[in-house]
Amino acid sequence: MKRWGKRLAIGLGVLLGLGAIALGITVAISHSLQGETYVLALDELQVPTDPAALAEGERLYASRGCAECHGADGSGAVIMDGPPARVAGSNLTRLGADYDTVAFDAAVRHGVGTDGRPLIFMPAHEYYVALSDADVAKIFAHVRSLPEVAEPAVPSEVRLLGRVLHVTGAMHMFPAELIDHEAPHPDAIEPAPTAAYGERLAAACTGCHGEGFSGGPIPGAPPELGTPKNLTPHASGLAEWDRDDFFVAMRDGRSRDGAAMNAEQMPYPVFARMTDVELDALWSYLQDVPPRPFGER
Q: Looking at the chain, which terminus has fewer C-beta neighbours within 10 angstroms, N or C?
């Protein structure tokens, strides 16, 4: 009996040792990917100055989710502080006079900071297809118009669980690695109530609802972020919804059954700033995606 107990203890020790080695390798891989340097060849964008363009820049800043992370005043905010990571939007009012459209574009559509390294949790892979050169320039013009807010910076930080989720592909901590940085930016597309235009807008939904839009728990996310719903035309999703139901949800934050949505979990105030054309396009696209059971992400 003692002999078997000793063997069991040795076996457990070996397993624990192998687990520790595997964890160490995983963490090292994550640090290596975070330390990668990207060299981008980006052009300066033409920044508009007319009132109409500035107003549209403010609307895009709000309706594309910039304000959700960086605040309406651009001073930044802590979005998540849990076991995987602390994610904080930076203070955009203190970028510095030499911060130009090239640096801004690198951050927004490539997820790369001024040091050439990937930004933490910056959803550039969503904005890469959703924002045109003109859109980025208008948002930059709006950001530049914001008065400086002397808010201390809160650094983002990837923690042990986050590094494991990152390397296993369950959570995109450094979205820069998902982008083909040598490919040209997609051509601008004329806003229209079409599925083609809606597909670009829907890229912003994938971070929570999954690439298949079927929702389910977000790997590693704290409970307070909630469980994203199924957006596909499946029985467990939007099969019974119509356009009016969708508009009420996006504009007023009420589900088809009349239940109020939690704005901290489903940021309907962001989508409320979309135009009717944009919401019609988004609805059209979601009606075209393959129906999938809830939770397949």
A: N
